[in-house]
Amino acid sequence: MYAIIDVGGKQYKVEKGKTVKLELTKKNIGDVVEFKSIFISSDDKKIQTSVNSKVIGKIVKLSKGKKIIVFKKKPKKGYKKTIGHRQNYTEVEITEIQN
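Below the sequence we write its predicted structure tokens.
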């Protein structure tokens, strides 16, 4: 059984018992999260696009991604600038998919 959910403008395919790496939410480790914006939920045999479906998960870990380095330079002017960015993530373990 799987579902496709929409979180923060991005779509994720989730299954029961698996962990998903989402963008940072304002929750703590151990909190229960409920996702109601579901596009598709599927059993082994049928696919549903119901409005009443929801996915329930538990926050397992708060982590950071790899560092991305942005380098700006203007030719012949001596202008150089280096910027780094690390995205914060929330890992959620999917505990239940309700149709």
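DSSP finds no helices and ten strands in the chain.
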